[in-house]
Write a structure and sequence with these properties.
Blueprint (H helix, E strand, L loop, with lengths): L5 H13 L28 E5 L5 H14 L3 E4 L4 H9 L5 E4 L5 H9 L4 E15 L7 E3 H8 L21 E5 L4 H11 L10 E3 L2 H10 L3 E6 H4 L6 E2 L1 E3 L4 E2 L3 H6 L5 E9 L6 H12 L1 H6 L5 E2 L2 H13 L4
């Protein structure tokens, strides 16, 4: 369990010293008619909104549920693509934008023109595993071989066509549905553009369907969210060579950034918004409870200890309410 950051702890202490009752200088987002004996968190009021990609929804939902237990604040979690979440943050319609990429310079400019300066916090990782049946006999593929296999117009029909030492079995290919963030990530990294893929493959609706295909299909190869496949023991997760040798798909290699099929996940907030105690307390709750939240979010690879400490540092340096 991480320690509650000094900024909120200090504000709690000031609130206790200040006494109770409604005050003109009550921090934004705090109800002034509740006595300090119930603590500052119990005085928070209002509604918060989080928006962002599907892969971050489990983490955001867990964080929202925990915060709603600790405070009277209602937290609404919605789903959209990263660009839409950024637009909603910069127009003041949401408090937290989840993101599968960093803001572009043009997007940051739009925010500044609207009087909003953003704060980025690395909050998790998203990675894709390439998996096969145990019987297929493949242990590692290069990103170039994956591109040959999955690119639009690919004519590869047998794994042996990808290189010496690979089995002559006919290819049998699976992946997540096209609306899935892991589909977008894999196709962008391998084929250069999200959504670009060969015609001859089959989509699966969930992890159970994917693992079922891999267990029963001796020729099966598929890609899927790494965090969701990691607990499965009777399939093979392939190492991937992006030019620096075969890298196994593990939490450690993802956190080090050496595994080729991964991306960073972020929370963006406005620095002005952090002056509101409601948002600040929520974000600090996320980093303080991060280990438990990440463990309950099956779609992500957790951020490293150092990255969460950096998020703590950035929040502690933000202007207090």
């Amino acid at each position: 369990m991480r320690r509650w950051l000094a900024s909120v702890a200090g504000i709690v202490a000031l609130a206790l010293l200040a006494g109770c009752g409604e005050r003109e200088d009550t921090p934004p987002g705090v109800r002034g008619d509740v006595g300090p004996d119930k603590g500052l968190l119990a005085r928070l009021t209002g509604t918060m909104r989080i928006d962002g990609p599907r892969v971050l929804q489990p983490l955001s939902s867990q964080a929202a549920a925990r915060f709603e237990v600790d405070t009277p604040v209602e937290v609404e979690v919605e789903e959209s693509d990263t660009a839409t979440a950024f637009d909603r943050l910069c127009t003041g319609r949401i408090d937290v934008a989840g993101a599968r990429r960093g803001m572009t310079e043009a997007e940051e400019t739009v925010c500044r023109e609207r009087g909003i300066e953003v704060q980025r916090l690395k909050i998790a990782n998203h990675a894709v595993a390439v998996a096969t049946s145990e019987a297929l006999g493949i242990s590692c593929l290069t990103t170039d071989q994956l591109r040959q296999l999955w690119r639009p117009g690919s004519t590869v029909t047998r794994y042996s066509e990808l290189g010496a030492g690979l089995p002559p079995a006919e290819v049998q290919l699976y992946g997540p549905e096209t609306a899935n963030d892991s589909f977008a990530l894999f196709t962008a990294l391998i084929n250069g553009r999200a959504g670009e893929i060969r015609r001859e493959w089959s989509s699966v609706v969930n992890r159970g369907a994917m693992t079922g295909r891999l267990r029963t299909g001796r020729r099966a190869l598929g890609f899927y969210n790494l965090a969701q496949l990691t607990p499965v023991t009777d399939i093979r997760l392939l190492a991937v060579d992006g030019g620096k040798g075969c890298i196994e798909p593990t939490e450690a290699t993802v956190q080090r950034g050496s595994y080729p099929l991964q991306e960073d996940l972020f929370y963006y907030v406005s620095k002005q918004g952090l002056r509101n105690l409601r948002l600040r307390a929520f974000m600090e709750s996320v980093v303080n409870s991060y280990d438990a939240l990440a463990a309950a979010a099956p779609s992500i690879v957790p951020a490293s200890e150092e990255e969460i400490e950096e998020a703590e540092r950035r929040l502690s340096q933000a202007e207090t309410p």
